[in-house]
Amino acid sequence: MPSPCFRHSTLAALIVLAGLSLPVHAQEEAEEESGSRYPTTEFADEAARSASVTVGSVTAGISQALRPEYDPSLEVPVLQVTVDDKPVLETPGVPSGMGFVAAEASIAEIDPDNSHPEIYFASYSGGAHCCNHVVVAEENNGSWVAVTIGDFDGDGNYLNDLDGDGLAEIATVDNRFLYTFDCYACSAAPLTVTTVRKGEVLDISADPRFLPAHRDWLEQIEGNIEEDRRWTSKGYLAGWIAAKIRVGEGAEAWQQFTSHWDLAADDGEEVCTSGEDIDSCPRANRKRLKFPDELKLFLERTGYLF
Fold it and tell me: Going by C-beta distance under 8 Å and a sequence separation of 6 or more, which residues neighbour residue 98?
């Protein structure tokens, strides 16, 4: 059961915001059953050995195979991309450790600067909250490359056209906020928006085009905290202030937070001011900070400025 301090699941709220749905076994099922906006194929059980989806001349196939160079004992999902029936790229995902491989591939327009759509490839490593390993395969200067986006909490289905321009973005939450100040269920996190251009990963979260999405996400965060925990939950406050920064209201949020925070009851916590894990932090960089100072340091370090 979720903690009473933050009742919603980060993933569930993200699905509501972005209109995402769980992947299906073939595009025909996607259109008929889930209304998925991107042609997607996936497998997540022992019976499935391979699957594929095609759009125009581009086919994304996924299979599972034992690749000792990646894992000596577990099968890994492998993405194979073909164009006009000619292989152009093969790249592995991650093993799940669950006794079967869990992976999906979608074809979507992400980067407008080439002549073919991109392949979004997500594979699940297992675990309660982490992780889905996300890779985007795209054509760059005539050659196909696999661009690693990262490892994220959630179901792996993060594709969405948030601004309605016909190009898909990768929309999820900033995983750095989860567990940092409180338990997973007690933590809020701001929305992040990522894309790929010419083989490079770009964080476009601050682009004004996504302001409506950030406002919707902030509204969900604010609507799912119990009123008596609003000014006492560290995990909520960290994510809420970051989300407020995304919509240009960071200074106002910080003032509200500091006016409500009980400094007298805050004993502080030892943190590493240089960013290392506390166990490996040099003694000279260790300092006991009350929560407002600790949070300000964290927000500055992660790029949330106001």
Answer: 126
SS (H, E, C) 72-117: CCCEEEEEEEEECCEEEEEEECCCCCCCCCCEEEEEECCCCCCCCC
* pTM for this entry: 0.83
* DSSP secondary structure code for residue 5 in this structure: T
Residue type, 97: G
Domain locations in the chain as residue ranges: 10-214, 232-301
Those residues with Cβ within 8 angstroms of residue 48's Cβ, 6 or more apart along the chain or in another chain: 25
Task: Report residue 197: phi and psi, to 5°.
Answer: -135, 120
Query: What is the longest distance spanned by two Cα atoms in the chain?
Result: 68
> What token pair was written down for 229?
């925990």
pLDDT-derived band at 6 (thresholds 50, 70, 90) equals: very low
Question: For 264-290, how does the pLDDT look when each residue is reduced to its tens digit (9 = 90+)?
Answer: 999 999 999 988 888 999 999 999 999
For the packed helices 291-301 and 234-246, what is the interaxial angle rounded to 10 degrees?
40
CB 82, CB 59: distance < 8 Å: yes
Strand, coil or helix: what is 53? strand
Q: With contact defined as beta carbons under 8 Å apart, do 176 and 184 qualify?
A: no
- CA 12, CA 7: separation in Å to the nearest integer? 11
CB atoms within 10 A of CB 267: 8
Alpha-carbon distances of 22 from 28, 105, 137, 305, rounded to whole Å: 14, 12, 21, 34
Q: How far apart are CA 64 and CA 95, in angstroms?
A: 9
Residue 16 has pLDDT above 50, yes or no: no
pLDDT digits (tens, 9 = 90+) for 192-229: 999 999 999 999 999 999 999 999 999 999 999 999 99
Q: Where are the beta strands (DSSP E) in 159-274?
A: 159-160, 169-173, 191-197, 200-203, 269-272
